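_Full entry_
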Amino acid sequence: MDRSPSPEHHAAFACFGGTCAVHLSGIGPLGPAPRAIETARLQLLAWHDRFSRFVPGSELSRLNASAARTVAVSPEMLLLARATIEAGRASGGLVDATVAGELDAAGYAAPLVGPGLDLAAALAAAPPRLPAGPDPRRRWATIEVDPRAGTVTRPPGVAIDAGGLAKGLFADLLADRLAGYGRFVVDCCGDLRLGGTRGARREVRIAHPSGGIAHVFERAAGAVATSSIARRSWTGPDGGPAHHLLDPATGRPAFTGVVQVSALAPTALEAERRSKAALLSGPDAAPDHLVHGGVLVLDDLTLRVVDPPAPRRRVTAAMRDGRLVLSDRA
C-alpha cells in the first residue's frame, strides 16, 4: 500500500456514450500509476463493448435476444443482473433497468450524437410535472441469478438496459482494484468512486445543467453519482422533448419537477440508484432517497442541498482516579 504523497496522473477518454476518467497516484497492485490507468482504461472500454445494448454481438445484446429462459453469463453479467433486481427492490420499482424496449420506442434505439436539446426549451414544452411510479408488471422481479451455476433466468423478452447501473457497478469494480494506491478517482460518465490509502480529502464539483458549478462536496472516500434529464435528450416520435430517464409506470420520459440529482453513497452503484430514484420521485419525495446527502436542481434551476448525516459519535466511560470520565468521539 502506498501512503506517500506522489504526483497524481490522470486520463480521460470516450466511453459509455460520454467521458470516463481515471485519476491515480502512487504504486499499487497494478504497478505504477500510469500503467494502472492504462489498464483501467482498457478494462472500461472492454466492458463498454460487452455491455452495450447498441452493439449487436455484445454479451448484453445476446442475453436480451436469447429465446432461452436460462442463459449462462459472465461473472460481471451476474453482478449486473443482481444489481437490476436490487435497484428495483430498494427503490420500490422506480429504478427499473428492464425498460430497454421502452427506451427504443421513445427514440433511444441508437447512440445519441450531439449536445441534445436546449434545457429551457425542453422544460417549456414538457408535459405537466408528475412523480414517476413503478411498472405494475415488476419485470425486474422476474429475474433470477444463480452464481453457482453462472446463469441468469428470466422470461424471454425481459430485456435489461445496462445504463447507469452498469457505470456505477464498473466504477466500484475498478475501485476494488485500485484501493491500494495513494489516491484514486474512477469517473464513469458522472458516476464517481474515490478513495485511497492516504485518506486525503478532495473537492467533488457538481456541474450545474445550465453551466458553472452547482455545488462542491469534499470527500476522501465513497461515491457520488449524478442523474440528469439535461443529458441524453432528443425530440421524441411525438415531436415533444424526450430523455433517457423513463417513468416505469408509463414507459415515457419522466418530467417530475427535478432536473438533476447528485447523490452521495458508500458505493457508486448505490449512489447511482439513489440519484435516479430521487429524480423520478419529484421534489417532495426526492430527499427521502438521499440518506447519505446530495443536491437537487429543480425545474426553475434552483438548488436544494440535502446535507449528509452527522457522523455518529461514540461515548465511552472509564474510571480514572476514582472518577467516572466520559469521552465523546466520532
